[in-house]
Design brief:
- The chain has about 210 residues and is an alpha+beta fold.
- The chain has 2 domains: about 140 residues, Beta-Lactamase; about 60 residues, Arc Repressor Mutant, subunit A, CATH 1.10.10.
- It contains 7 helices and 4 strands.
- A 4-stranded antiparallel β-sheet has the order 2-1-4-3.
- Helix 5 packs across helix 6 and helix 6 crosses helix 7.
Amino acid sequence: MRGSTVRSDTLEGAGVTGTGPGTELAVVVQATDSLISSTEPSVVFDDLVQRSAPLVCDAARVMVYGPGATLHASTWPQDAAEQQPEAESVVTEVKVPASGDHDGYHAIVSLRFGFPDHSHPFIARLLVDRAIANVEQARLAEIAARHKSEADNLAIALSTNRDIGVAVGIVMTNHALNRDEAFALLSRASQSTNRKLHEIALEVVRVG
């Protein structure tokens, strides 16, 4: 899953119009739009470092802290930790609070550019903001899917209960039974035939 497209005029407004090799406007757009979506921050930020950052900078690393101070670290290239002094890097730190069933997280992203330019902090922030948005997008999609499933299950349950209720009424009328007796009769028929109670109810409703 991908995030929404970055508008070119947004980047141009920040002066990202051709700042040098690797940070042309089209490349920055490609880097942000290529980020994957996932409910797991470590997955998205790892993708930022390994696939998006190489398009716009010389080296990158990220540290993502989750619940209980669990840590996920990712570096590109592999020897970037030795080659990337903090003073030469654009560092972006974010703390995202927990929301609903999803845990909060703390991410520190460090990008090193090969030449100085005023647009680099904006590019770094843009990538980090897109990563945050993609995590949130995936989490909201998961919540929406779960709610839809719950709503579908409720609709099925209501329909099933309605059919059983109609069948109980038919049995009460046909056999002069009260509600409990009619329901018990349907239940015994379900058990003796090894069929679901709803199936028995539908047959009673159909036959009358």
